[in-house]
Design a protein that fits this description.
Length: 298
């Protein structure tokens, strides 16, 4: 494993996006013959079931068929692990230790941006939990995920949250929101990039935050119980960066002004959609973890 400072990769942003968006396991069509494409979902996590029933008004006998159809369309766009093994049904922000505080703050009127929101599942969870949709913004470089999110949750005509298409590497990324956001969620996002790319990402997203004590970034990503800072170029089909508590602290310090109060929690790699046929072993041994982190401006 290379140390953070030894990582030499500095990829031009446009090159990076092309590389990411064209990823299809080296084939024209995304192969389903990988361990992280689970053909069958054995059970629907409880939160997902409630949202599909009560928010999307999908009948019980339709839910599985509906999920499979949208999941397979998403897989054709980008064969991410979170798509292949239904991890989007985890509603990952709500599993963060920071979620109760975040929900309370957004319900009280603070603004939240979901960076790399994918199908926008977390946006729907805030709304379901009583947050005003007007205070929620989801951004993703792939507009087809926004469309699929509307299909998944059947709320194209009702969702008031703003879903924006944007590339975090662009210099004018979300310039209209600069200094206006209270809380940013980065779910399964940072680990897609090299450390140097993450410095650029953090420099761009921290500019969106209000310049005041308590402005917050929280998220989850792959991590290791070891020193951290490794960029695994042959992880699940593409590269993944493994953070440690030290590297996430270092990232925040080196990409933004001011000091942060950072909390981290490492947990085993898992999913709420627990019963997946081929197991969850593809991320590596016990040293590979998930990290939840939250960072507040001091
Ligand atoms: C692994 S998914 C995570 C989705 C969701 N946040 C979650 O936790 O399940 C990463 C998302 O980041 C988006 N993404 C990748 N590169 C991006 C970029 N340069 N700018 C904005 N979004 C990007 C992808 O399209 C994808 O939806």
């Amino acid at each position: 494993m290379a140390a953070v400072n030894e990582i030499p990769t500095s990829v031009d942003s446009s090159e990076k996006v092309a590389e990411t968006l064209n990823f299809t396991n080296g084939k024209n069509k995304a192969s389903r013959d990988v361990a992280w494409y689970q053909p069958e979902l054995k059970q629907i996590p409880e939160t997902a079931k409630q949202i599909f029933q009560n928010y999307s008004k999908i009948s019980d006998d339709e839910i599985f068929k509906h999920i499979y159809r949208v999941r397979d369309e998403a897989w054709e766009i980008l064969p991410y692990v979170c798509v292949g093994c239904f991890r989007f049904l985890d509603f990952p922000a709500s599993l963060s230790p920071a979620y109760p505080e975040v929900l309370e703050r957004v319900r009280a009127g603070e603004t939240l941006l979901d960076m790399g929101c994918g199908l926008g599942q977390d946006i729907r969870k805030y709304v379901y939990d009583g947050a005003p949709a007007d205070n929620l913004i989801g951004v993703d470089v792939e507009s087809r995920f926004h469309d699929l999110g509307y299909e998944l949750f059947k709320d194209r005509d009702t969702l008031k949250a703003r879903l924006v298409t944007g590339d975090v590497f662009e210099d004018d990324f979300l310039s209209e929101f600069r200094g206006k956001i209270d809380i940013i969620f980065v779910g399964s996002f940072l680990h897609l990039f090299t450390y140097e790319q993450q410095i650029k990402i953090m420099a761009h997203v921290t500019k969106l935050l209000k310049n005041r004590k308590g402005s917050m970034i929280f998220g989850r990503h792959m991590a290791t119980a070891q020193a951290g800072g490794a960029f695994n170029t042959s992880a699940t089909g593409w590269s993944l960066y493994y953070h440690s508590p030290e590297t996430i602290n270092q990232l925040l310090e080196s990409s933004s002004e001011g000091k942060w109060d950072v909390e981290t929690k490492l947990i085993p790699y898992s999913t709420a959609s627990t019963v997946v046929e081929k197991g969850m072993t593809w991320q590596g041994g016990n040293d590979i973890k998930q990290m939840y982190f939250s960072a507040k401006k001091l």
